[in-house]
């Protein structure tokens, strides 16, 4: 039985912080694999202007040299507008039945789940395991204890809380803004992704 982390994001574009986060979690949580899961551009809470093909290509360029990293386009291929993390995790648990599946997320998302803002929030927490990365200004233990959804579905192994040790919060939106204004975000993302964006004139 292996341990697999599902790392979902828009990856528009993937950044060095995404890679560092995945590497940190892989090492500290003794995962066998981290699967990068780019979200669908059809989700109501995401408004992406970058074509799926470009996000997918850059993701592969970024992770190709790490055998512990892989990518899955499950959410990209979904046609439904109401794609939920609950259904996505059901898919991965069915695909990897002999392994333990963890959903990787930031503490800001833990807050939203605790407030019931995600589809099937109660069942999502009850039936799954999470690796939660610290975010500045968020007390993860207090977040869990103050939410009935989180605390009443926590069996002691539901949440694996990780403090990265460094506050590295460079966002994809910052990189997109830099490209759009002729800035220079070169060393904030993998070199091959930087060159890919230049070649295809993305984020202009």
Automatic annotation (TrEMBL):
Main EC class the enzyme belongs to: transferase
E.C. code: 2.7.7.18
Molecular-function GO terms, alphabetical: nicotinate-nucleotide adenylyltransferase activity
Reactions it catalyzes: nicotinate beta-D-ribonucleotide + ATP + H(+) = deamido-NAD(+) + diphosphate
Domain Cytidyltransferase-like: 6-177
Pfam families linked: CTP_transf_like (PF01467)
Keywords assigned: ATP-binding, NAD, Nucleotide-binding, Nucleotidyltransferase, Pyridine nucleotide biosynthesis, Transferase
Secretion signal span: none
PANTHER family listed in its UniProt record: NICOTINATE-NUCLEOTIDE ADENYLYLTRANSFERASE-RELATED (PTHR39321), PHOSPHOPANTETHEINE ADENYLYLTRANSFERASE (PTHR39321:SF3)
NCBIfam families named among the record's database cross-references: nicotinate (nicotinamide) nucleotide adenylyltransferase
Family, per entry: Belongs to the NadD family.
Function: Catalyzes the reversible adenylation of nicotinate mononucleotide (NaMN) to nicotinic acid adenine dinucleotide (NaAD).
Name listed for the protein in its UniProt record: Probable nicotinate-nucleotide adenylyltransferase
Source organism (scientific name): Metabacillus malikii
Name of the gene this protein is made from: nadD
């Amino acid at each position: 039985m292996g341990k697999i982390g599902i790392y979902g994001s828009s990856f528009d574009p993937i950044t060095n912080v995404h890679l560092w986060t995945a590497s940190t979690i892989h090492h500290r949580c003794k995962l066998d694999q981290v699967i990068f899961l780019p979200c669908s551009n059809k989700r109501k809470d995401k408004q992406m202007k970058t074509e799926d093909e470009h996000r997918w290509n850059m993701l592969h360029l970024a992770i190709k040299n790490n055998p512990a990293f892989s990518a899955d386009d499950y959410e990209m291929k979904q046609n439904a507008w109401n794609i939920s993390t609950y259904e996505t995790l059901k898919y991965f648990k069915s695909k990897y039945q002999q392994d333990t599946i963890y959903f990787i997320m930031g503490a800001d998302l833990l807050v939203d789940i605790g407030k019931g803002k995600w589809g099937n929030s109660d069942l999502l927490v009850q039936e799954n395991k999470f690796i939660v990365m610290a975010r500045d200004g968020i007390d993860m233990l207090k977040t869990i204890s103050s939410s009935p959804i989180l605390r009443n579905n926590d069996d002691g192994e539901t949440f694996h809380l990780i403090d990265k040790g460094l506050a590295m919060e460079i966002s994809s939106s910052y990189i997109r803004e830099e490209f759009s204004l002729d800035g220079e975000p070169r060393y904030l993302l993998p070199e091959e992704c930087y060159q890919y964006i230049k070649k295809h004139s993305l984020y202009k």
